[in-house]
Design goal:
It is built from 2 helices and 7 strands; from the N terminus they run ββββαββαβ. By secondary structure, the protein is an alpha+beta fold. The longest helix has 21 residues.
Length: 146
């Protein structure tokens, strides 16, 4: 069962995958905005010796892309989560907050299956969502701002 909480202000949403799962992120994608409207996408990557350089790109998503993204992440609500280990095996953490559900595979989430091993179908769903978000970021976040 997805976690039902007060919606973000004005129906705003955010979807943010990061890598690696347990350490300071070296890769981050942030997508935020409101449903049915163009939204912002931003990527950051730490590169170089000791990750001292940060490359930031940004872009925008059309309203149709936003609605497709929100449909894509919806099935994650209620999937197993674990604050202690990367149960999906992709060394990635995905945090989402939408009008309908809040979910974070690196936290205990009320209503999500906690401390259980995900099924192969759960793992595939998580992988498909993560890969789709990464592909969207590669396509849309083009402008280097730093």
């Amino acid at each position: 069962m997805p976690r039902f909480v007060a919606p973000p202000p004005s129906g705003e949403f955010s979807v943010s995958p990061t890598k690696p799962f347990t350490q300071t992120p070296t890769e981050k994608i942030e997508i935020f905005g409101e449903p049915n409207r163009p939204s912002t996408i931003k990527t950051s990557a730490r590169v170089g010796a000791e990750n001292q350089n940060i490359i930031i790109k940004d872009g925008s998503l059309a309203a149709d892309d936003v609605n497709e993204l929100l449909s894509l992440v919806r099935p994650l609500g209620g999937l197993p989560t674990s604050p202690d280990k990367d149960i999906y095996g992709l060394d990635a953490r995905l945090v989402m907050s939408t009008f309908e559900v809040q979910w974070d595979n690196g936290e205990e989430v009320e209503g999500a299956e906690a401390e259980v091993n995900p099924t192969e179908e759960n793992k595939q769903t998580f992988k498909d969502v993560l890969e789709s978000i990464e592909a969207l970021a590669r396509q849309k976040a083009k402008n280097r701002i730093s």
